[in-house]
Specification:
The chain is mostly helical and 316 residues long. The chain is built from 14 helices and 2 strands, in the order H-H-H-H-E-E-H-H-H-H-H-H-H-H-H-H.
């Protein structure tokens, strides 16, 4: 279980945490901009789809909206990281002497010196968005799975109903459990499987926000696509009528949180996350530096139960 601060420090942090909570709520709502806007405001829905009849909206429109929702959430995460200060000033040696460059290793979670390649913000952002192991592979999976018609019938219901917290949370908890299991299996698998799948991602001993999906095709398939597929199938088998809006909300939060926990600087709302077992950048950096702890991503619950949790506050 994670260690907690002293009562004095706790109340001081809680007082400061008011604005942290406000930031957390604002960021969280922002990540869900697309599904919340289209379900809360019928006029926007009618404008986007040129109809108020959800049954006349073609399936491909639901797919495009979902992909756009994830793209918007990623843009918000990248802008948040930039303006928050994940990007700092670094002096580099160049042909013309020293110059300032916006880079991704200021105020690191880990105290040891960052030894990875230093990329400017624009270069790192471009690499993140065009990474074949990330959005290209994930997008391809979603396009094929959605357009095949193999998903549960409820996913194709375009009726503008506000996303249910129960269904969104259920998807997040389930995918994280499946991802935790897949993650542990990759680490204990025969060496050739680990080398071909997960090891490329672990070349980042001190990762940053833009390296969440930087690994290998095999790793993305085993640890992201398989859990995503399993989540949609199991939710259907459990009788949960997950709607397209709940799926969009889930996907936006899921992809964004994977980036946030790879951040090489802590977030102001991490105390709130630690209190309820939501994964933090501290927690995930433990895994990247020690390998055998903190296999969870969204939550630390499965590590608590499995005896694989290591407190990032104690490690760093």
């Amino acid at each position: 279980m994670p260690s907690l601060p002293s009562p004095h420090a706790f109340f001081k942090q809680c007082f400061e945490g008011f604005k942290d909570g406000l930031l957390w709520a604002t960021l969280g709502m922002g990540l869900c901009t697309v599904p919340l806007t289209l379900t809360f405001y019928p006029s926007v829905y009618a404008y986007v789809y040129s109809t108020t009849d959800p049954y006349s909206v073609p399936n491909w429109m639901g797919l495009v909206t979902g992909l756009f929702s994830v793209l918007v959430s990623q843009m918000i995460v990248c802008l948040y990281g930039y303006f928050k200060g994940l990007v700092g000033e670094q002096v580099k040696e160049g042909g013309e002497g020293k110059r300032n460059s916006r880079v991704w290793h200021m105020l690191p979670v880990q105290k040891k010196e960052y030894k990875g390649e230093i990329l400017g913000y624009k270069e790192a952002l471009f690499a993140h968005l065009t990474n074949p192991e990330g959005f290209l592979l994930l997008g391809g999976y979603l396009i094929i799975y959605w357009m095949s018609g193999m998903m549960n019938e409820s996913y194709y219901n375009m009726k503008p109903v506000v996303p249910s917290v129960r269904n969104v949370f259920g998807q997040l908890a389930l995918v994280d459990f499946l991802q935790y299991a897949a993650h542990r299996l990759e680490h204990i698998a025969p060496t050739w499987i680990y080398v071909a799948s997960h090891k490329p991602h672990h070349r980042h001993h001190n990762p940053n926000l833009f390296q969440a999906f930087d690994g290998s095709v095999a790793d993305t398939v085993l640890m992201i696509l398989v859990p995503l597929l399993g989540t949609s199938v199991i939710m259907g088998e459990l009788g949960a009528k997950v709607t397209v809006w709940e799926y969009m909300t889930f996907g936006s939060l899921y992809s964004s949180h994977l980036c946030l926990i790879h951040s090489n600087t802590p977030h102001r709302f991490d105390l709130l996350h630690r209190l309820v077992g939501v994964g933090t950048s501290w927690d995930h950096h433990v895994h990247h530096s020690m390998f055998k702890y903190n296999y969870g991503h969204l939550f630390m619950w499965w590590d608590w139960v499995g005896g694989t949790y290591r407190d990032g506050g104690e490690k760093f």
